[in-house]
Design a protein that fits this description.
The chain is mainly α. The chain is built from twelve helices and no strands. The protein has a single domain, classed as Tetracycline Repressor, domain 2. About 75% of the residues lie in helices and about 0% in strands. Pfam families: TetR_N. Keywords: DNA-binding.
Length: about 220
């Protein structure tokens, strides 16, 4: 289990993130991060075992922040369909606009592409795990159908990752109405009922159960 980050860790991670956004990953040295954070290089190395692990920790922290914000959106949105719609739209929006995507592409486009391709497995895996957990919780509440959530979670996570790498093709996800219509017609039914006849037709969530839990988060 990963150790909890204290205030000093957070200061180092903040400095690393800012340096990455400024010059990219390759040009961000531990010396640079030490100067920016005001913490000596030896301390940074002891806490994060070098630059590679520090960069991975920065990425994981940003993903956790996004998922925590998505959870907060679900908790404050009424109705399971609206919860799915709003949280998916939020995540898809950030895959296109988060500084770790836009700023890295601006300062070092080749490095950014390599980074998100090589790190793609980690990104998608975290997304899958999160979505599986959300869907299993929703199934326990009876607000979505009883189906295997793993294929659905993988499709949605891979879709978000693909949108990050190729933002313009087919539907224009930069247009809010287009993005919302796509999510509402394609993603919401998928997450409510699963994949194919075996998912869509088996044990759907009763309408009265959905209505009774409109005020609850997924």
């Amino acid at each position: 289990m990963a150790r909890a980050h204290d205030e000093l860790d957070e200061k180092i991670l903040d400095a690393a993130l800012q340096r990455i956004l400024q010059v990219g990953i390759r040009r961000s040295s531990l010396d640079d991060i030490a100067r920016r954070s005001g913490i000596n290089r030896v301390t940074i190395y002891r806490r994060f075992s070098g630059k590679e692990n520090l960069i991975e920790t920065v990425l994981h922290r940003e993903i956790r922040r996004i998922l925590a914000e998505a959870t907060a959106i679900a908790a404050t949105t009424s109705g399971v369909e609206a919860q799915i719609e709003e949280t998916v739209l939020y995540v898809l929006h950030l895959t296109r606009t988060h500084p770790l995507v836009t700023q890295m592409l601006a300062v070092s486009p080749e490095e950014a592409l390599e980074f998100y391709t090589v790190r793609g497995e980690e990104l998608v895996s975290q997304g899958i795990s999160y979505i599986v957990g959300v869907l299993e919780g929703a199934q326990e509440k009876g607000v979505v159908g009883r189906y295997d959530p793993r294929p659905v979670a993988e499709l949605v996570a891979r879709f978000a990752h693909s949108l990050m790498l190729t933002p313009t093709a087919g539907a224009d996800f930069g247009d809010e109405e287009t993005a919302r219509a796509f999510v509402r017609t394609a993603v919401v039914p998928l997450m409510l009922h699963g994949i194919g006849p075996s998912g869509a037709g088996r044990n759907p969530a009763p309408r009265e159960t959905v209505a009774a839990t409109r005020a609850e988060g997924l």
